[in-house]
Design goal:
This protein is of the alpha+beta class. The protein has 12 helices and 25 strands. Strands 1, 2, 3, 4, 5, 6, 7, 8, 9, 10, 11, 12 and 13 form a 13-stranded mixed β-sheet that branches. Strand 6 and strand 7 form a beta hairpin. Helix 9 runs parallel beside helix 12. The chain starts with a helix and ends with a strand.
């Protein structure tokens, strides 16, 4: 029955464990949902680029002003003005320029336009950068020059010292040239230069071009600004270097482009304010949007990729229950191990980019709608990009590029994951609880059946308590009623067996007496030797049959006598000592060795039954012992019990038979005793008498392996 209960619990645990497949299905569902959300985000972002491109279609002036008509760009010649995020202080210090070396351009020997001595010990180079802010174009040149030469304050000309030529196209498309020539470090204004070949003397000052010339350890720095409304779409810088202040001769010229010819000037791209205003109207999309020209140069941008998570405007979430809040707080560490939270602090590798060089933009410039996925530089964010071409007639003038991260989808997925798993865990918890209650109820009912089955039959095999059947209509109720019926029938059968021995004894006594008397009378008549032999054998069989009938009725007779036994205080020492002396006189062939304590052991018992019990123990010991070794009898006190130990040397008990020997009709005999009548009732009677006196019998092999010992424990009087 215990195995049945354990098996039932195991099945319930396995059934409960099957509920754990629900989170797996939930996780698969969330992955599918995430894929659908990404597809939806991709379509939405494509729609955003299409909407912006629609606003830019058929507007060539927006791109012609950005020199998008140029077929090919020349790095270093064609310039780009970055959008400056902070104000620039014109002081010759470059600490307020963002981007540093990543956005600046270097000009050295490859950009030399004129040089008198190729082996000069003073090679000239400079680093250059453009920026745009609040209607001004800012520029700096960080010049490497070991021997800078300033203009003499009284010099009539402005070109006999180190100086800078600024050439640009006016909004009307005319070439305008300006010279920056200073006689010391400090603030300056540029001078408007005349046409080519004219004398550079007494030039008018152009106050709109302002700057600062500052000496440095390696040369000098030129920082300047000019209004954007002075600038068309071309710009160039030429640095003229004078090495010898005595000769006033220009030794070399390094320039971004040829500043003497408008057609040779490099283009300049300044982010378009008109396109910027168009993009500003799309700022509610929370997308990062670029507009690039046909050379993949950024001419306008809007938004911040760190904020472009692609999430919809969040609605007010319904209040969570106390259970949900407690469960979320409890499972947050587990969710942190499973889920990857969105990281909004990733590195944007396209921040302040002037060109978007990627294959999918090149394909978009062919007139195809494109989208792609990429991972941020630090691998913390997944970025979705979409590109849509801008058309003027049948020609692609540029591309609208929009980007968003999947952080919004990740946050939405994580929130859905938490809610779904909170619900699934609640369902699993409730399901396990219901199954546990159900299993506990079944286990309780089965345990009740087990207890009833255990208590229904006592150690003698009798039905001690009636088995009460369940009124339930389920299978366990059927089992209970079946067990009750079975116990009922067992009780009737056991009662029949109990009455069988007395009935047989009573019924067989008369036929046995008749046969015995007939044999005795027959023996008195004269018989030959053969007849006497048969008569003697028949008389021996009658005696053996009589002993069997006596043994069969003995257990029943003792059980009935025990019900009327009168117990009294008995000195156990004297009782055992007297019995041992009697055994020694009765069985002189055997030796008996008695060991008992000095203290008096009193028990409450019927001395006649105790003596009968002792007799059967001694009889058993003699049957399994030889006359050479003494039967050891030890009396001692252990706790509140008087312990009588009878030990003999002889054959050992078979394995797993020590408990069965105390049952009725169980006997273990050697071959030499097979001719004697043994029904296995001796130790059964011993057990019956011991239990009547609240004691117990223990049979086991001796520790030294030389024989068997039987221990009788009886409670001491007053314990």
């Amino acid at each position: 029955m215990k195995k049945l209960i354990l098996g039932l619990r195991t099945k319930i645990i396995l059934l409960s464990s099957s509920l754990l497949i629900l989170p797996w299905f939930g996780y698969q569902y969330l992955q599918e949902m995430e894929n659908f959300l990404r597809q939806g985000q991709e379509q939405t972002l494509i729609g955003t680029t299409q909407a912006v491109a629609t606003a830019l279609h058929e507007r060539p002036e927006l791109f012609n002003a950005q020199a998008s008509f140029v077929n090919e760009l020349d790095a270093g010649k064609d310039l780009y003005a970055y959008q400056l995020e902070q104000a620039i202080n014109i002081d010759g210090l470059l600490n307020d320029w963002q981007g540093g070396q990543q956005q600046s351009l270097f000009y050295g020997q490859k950009q030399v336009r004129f040089q008198t001595d190729k082996n000069t010990k003073n090679p000239i180079s400079f680093t250059h950068q453009l920026g745009k802010r609040n209607g001004y174009l800012y520029a700096y040149l960080q010049v490497i020059d070991k021997k800078p030469v300033f203009r003499d304050i009284h010099a009539p000309r402005l070109d006999q010292n180190d100086h800078l030529i600024i050439a640009l196209s006016s909004p009307q498309g005319l070439l305008q040239r300006y010279i920056v020539s200073v006689y010391k470090s400090g603030w300056f204004n540029a001078y408007l230069m005349p046409g080519l070949g004219a004398d550079i003397k007494q030039l008018p000052r152009e106050k709109r071009i302002q700057g600062f010339w500052k000496l440095s350890a390696s040369g000098y720095t030129i920082e300047l600004r000019l209004p954007l409304d002075m600038l068309g779409n071309k710009l160039g810088f030429a640095l003229h270097n004078v090495s010898n202040p005595n000769t006033h001769r220009v030794d070399n010229i390094i320039s971004t482009s040829n500043t003497d010819d408008l057609a040779e000037l490099g283009t300049v791209l300044v982010p378009s304010p008109e396109i910027k205003r168009i993009l500003k109207g799309m700022s509610h999309t929370k997308s990062k949007i670029w507009v690039v020209d046909r050379h993949q140069r950024v001419i306008a941008e809007s938004g911040d990729i760190l904020q472009a998570d692609g999430a919809w405007a969040s609605l007010q979430a319904p209040p969570e229950s106390q259970w949900s809040r407690w469960l979320s707080k409890l499972l947050t560490p587990l969710y942190a191990l499973i889920l990857s939270p969105p990281d909004g602090a990733f590195i944007d590798d396209l921040k302040d980019a002037t060109r978007l060089n990627s294959q999918f933009i090149e394909q978009a410039l062919t007139g195809q709608l494109q989208s792609s996925w990429r991972v941020s530089k630090d691998k913390k964010a997944m970025i979705l990009s979409a590109a849509y071409p801008v058309l003027v007639g049948n020609q692609v003038m540029g591309v609208v590029v929009a980007e968003e991260t999947t952080n919004g989808i990740l946050a939405l997925r994580n929130k859905a994951f938490e809610k779904l798993f909170n619900m699934l865990i609640s369902i699993i918890f409730i399901g396990v609880l219901v199954l546990f209650i159900f299993a506990s109820n079944i286990a309780r009912r089965i345990r009740t059946l087990r207890n009833q089955a255990d208590n229904a039959i006592d150690s003698q095999g009798r039905i001690s308590t009636p088995f009460s059947a369940s009124c339930s209509t389920d299978e366990i109720g059927d089992l209970s009623r079946g067990l009750a019926e079975m116990v009922n029938r067992l009780g009737q059968y056991h009662h029949y067996l109990e009455q069988l021995a007395p009935r047989l004894s009573h019924e067989l006594h008369t036929p046995v007496a008749i046969v015995r008397s007939s044999l005795e009378n027959l023996a008195l008549l004269p018989q030959n030797e053969d007849n006497k032999k048969y008569i003697k054998r028949s008389q021996q069989g009658i005696k053996r049959l009589n002993r069997i009938l006596t043994s069969m009725s003995e257990a029943t007779r003792i059980e009935q006598s025990l019900q009327h036994a009168e117990q009294q205080q008995v000195i156990f020492n004297d009782l055992v000592n007297g019995c041992v002396q009697g055994y020694q006189m009765t069985y002189p062939a055997f030796q008996f060795q008695l060991s008992q304590p000095q203290q008096t052991l009193q028990i409450v018992a019927d001395p006649d039954f105790i003596v009968q019990l002792f007799d059967k123990l001694i009889t058993n010991a003699m049957e399994f012992s030889d006359t050479e070794n003494a039967i050891e009898i030890t009396l001692k006190k252990e706790g509140g019990f008087a312990c009588l130990l009878v030990s003999n040397r002889g054959p050992l008990l078979p394995d797993n038979m020590t408990d069965q020997l105390l049952n009725s009709m169980v006997s273990v005999r050697t071959k030499k005793s097979q001719d004697k009548t043994h029904l296995g009732l001796g130790l059964f009677i011993v057990k019956m008498i011991a239990e009547f006196h609240r004691g117990e019998i223990i049979i086991k092999n001796r520790a030294d392996g030389l024989g068997v010992e039987v221990l009788l424990r009886l409670p001491v009087a007053g314990s």
